[in-house]
Design goal:
185 residues, 2 domains, 6-stranded antiparallel beta sheet
Length: 185
């Protein structure tokens, strides 16, 4: 091979690598805003020897948020209820697991959003090797944040928009739960 053809081949290879890197960037570069809050919440739960917490959601007086924590998994549900007084009473009595159960089973279905944080480390737009993926269930639709939007019959743009919205909702829920645990200190 001549020097000129070697140079040309390297240029094509470099351009191909750069293009592939740029195409992969939207998913790889997506930062999780929820990571620090998920860690803070799980640390607080551990310090208080709790596996669940619940709070009023700051978005609406009849909306609540609750979390259930297992080692390596955090499940957070946000929902409105037709009986906010009953849920408020459970909050006063610090019956967090009961609030979680109520939101999971007896809330207004179209208001229910459940986020499963597979590593209890904040949402990730794609699954890391040998790690669980995160997901969101909302309005009867489930999205797995495993990086495979095609499998879910989505465009990459819709997938990333859904991830960003889920992460924002997760941040709001986590902030309410962390505030509840800090208030109880």
């Amino acid at each position: 091979m001549t020097s000129r053809s070697t140079h040309g081949a390297l240029a094509v290879l470099s351009a191909s690598f750069l293009t592939a890197s740029l195409l992969a960037m939207p998913v790889a570069a997506q930062d999780s805003r929820s990571a620090a809050l998920a860690k803070e919440l799980t640390d607080l739960l551990g310090q208080k020897k709790l596996d669940s917490v619940a709070a009023k959601h700051p978005a609406a007086p009849d909306q609540f948020v609750a979390a259930l924590f297992f080692p390596g998994q955090l499940i957070v549900i946000t929902a409105r209820t037709t009986a906010p007084a009953v849920v408020n009473e459970k909050l006063v009595r610090r019956e967090f697991r009961e609030v979680y159960v109520d939101l999971n089973s007896a809330s207004i279905p179209e208001s229910r959003v459940m986020i499963t944080d597979g590593g209890a480390d904040g949402l990730r737009a794609r699954r890391e090797p040998n790690q669980p993926f995160d997901s969101q269930d909302s309005g009867g639709k489930s999205v797995r944040f495993n990086g495979n939007w095609r499998e879910q019959k989505m465009s990459e743009q819709d997938y990333m928009k859904g991830f960003t919205q889920a992460d924002e909702a997760y941040v709001a829920a986590l902030q309410a739960l962390v505030a509840e645990l800090k208030k109880a200190s």
